[in-house]
Amino acid sequence: MPKSENPNPLIQNRLLAALPGKVYEQFASELEFVPLALGDVLYEAGKPIADIYFPNDGMVSLTSTEDSNAIIEIGVIGSEGMVGIAAFLGGGQMPNRAIVQISGSAMRICAEQFNNGFLSDAGVQKSLLRYTQALMTQISQTAVCNRIHSLEARFTRWLLLSHDRAASDEFMLTQEFIAYMLGASRQSVSEAASRLQDANLIYYVRGKITILDRAKIESATCNCYRIVKDEFNRLSV
Length: 237
Description:
CATH class of the largest domain: Mainly Beta
Mean pLDDT: 88
CATH architecture of the largest domain: Sandwich
Largest sheet: 5 strands, antiparallel
Radius of gyration: 18 Å
CATH topology of the largest domain: Jelly Rolls
CATH superfamily of the largest domain: Jelly Rolls
Structural class: alpha+beta
Number of helices: 10
Helix content: 40-55%
Strand content: 15-25%
Number of domains: 2
């Protein structure tokens, strides 16, 4: 399915940009521009979601914490989507945490205002449900990837997801943070990054990753990346 034309070309978030002009204008005054700094927590696991975020750029990670306090990433959200889907699905809270992984900005709206307004439009509901299906595909495929694929395959998949949302070939991330997201040790992440750097796929120094050869990274990663990307494209998200 081809992507629909953007009726609001000045809006960076694709879900907001896809809204009919009259719907967006009705709620534009309720949307607040907010910066997203690395490490900002947008909502906590098990806590009511008060606000919904539509990222303009950057990337937000959905993370799960086990009883052992081990943290692992289960999904990522950028300008293609929204943070806080439980607010319109009716659950009101999620069992995971949303934390900014790559700094950027977002448009924020009160969850109650969002539900009272946006959801009254059938077209908006359809767009949000398609996005939710795509996000569910990403989360389920991430679980498969974390279970059966090597660290290097998971690392390259994660690099591609980050590159898609960073809007730049360079982005700031420490090995410690990457290790948390991948559920791996810092040492193993350092070794994987060194192998990719030796192969001239990336350049990594002092927490800054530079993508040098995206095509080779795509060749090195597992099929999980393509499965999720194809589903987002199929659903026009």
